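Technical appendix A lists one of the benchmark inputs used to test multi-chain prediction within the project. The record comprises two sequence entries:
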Amino acid sequence: MTEHKTPTSTLFATLIALMVLLALSVVASKMLQGAAATTAALAIAVAKALLVGWIFMDLRRSSPLTRLIAVSGLFWLLIMVVLTAMDFATRGM
Amino acid sequence: MQFDDAEQQHEAAALGMWAFLATEILFFGGVLTGFVIYRHRYLEAFAEGGKELWPWIGTANTAVLLLSSFAMAMAVHEAETQGRRKHIARYLLLTALLGATFICVKAVEYTIDWHEGLIPSLNWHPEHLSHPDQTQMFFFFYFFLTILHAIHMTAGIGVILIVAWQTRRPDFSSEKKTTVEMLGLYWHFVDVVWIFLFPLLYLTA
């Protein structure tokens, strides 16, 4: 872990990529409407979160067990959102 | 000795921190699930609510927060490079300053919301809205999510300042490297939460 730290050039490139994605999300919100706008906004948010997680939070150098714990939180969230949405979708209201 | 070596200690700390962050995902996730469900049901009213916000303020604040994450990543980078305590402190203070800027901008935004009568229950004047009750629900979510996020940031800023103060000790860098790294994980997580709050609240109107 200590012997291969992330070089500052990589950290800076990540910052630039995050700023470009932020600008892109604003442009997309002006140009797109409805479901397309929501999809684009969320896709860009996921890309930003992956960059922060992978580089800044160093998941790329983390152990498999640490990555598993990191992903498990998202998996539980997925269960909560999907099952709740299913309940509402099938109530026939 | 609790651990065989520094590597194992680091691994245990990272694992514990990520387990805590998993509970945090579900803490925010519960509210987010509610938001997603009601946004789907009251699409028009929630879009109307989003239009009442100021996307440029939100965008600028997102940029400030991304910068703060970069500053924190630099602090962690310095902590991993042995013996540069002043550099660690400098980047930690920059992170805290950017975090405080975010909170101040948010406070200005809340003040504008107050003057526009957009505070549910307390100062709610929905005369110009077509679905006032449902849009009020949007603002309940907006304030709950952003205040919950701001509380997390305030706590983070507090710990950052404490650790920055601790860098004054000459023996800091060798034993506290992991502390800075774990603080970094927390700060980046709070950044990621905002990365999702920003488009959900401001951009999908």
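Residues 69 and 75 of chain A are 10 Å apart (CA to CA). Residues 62-93 of chain A form one domain. Comparable benchmark entries are summarised in Table A2.
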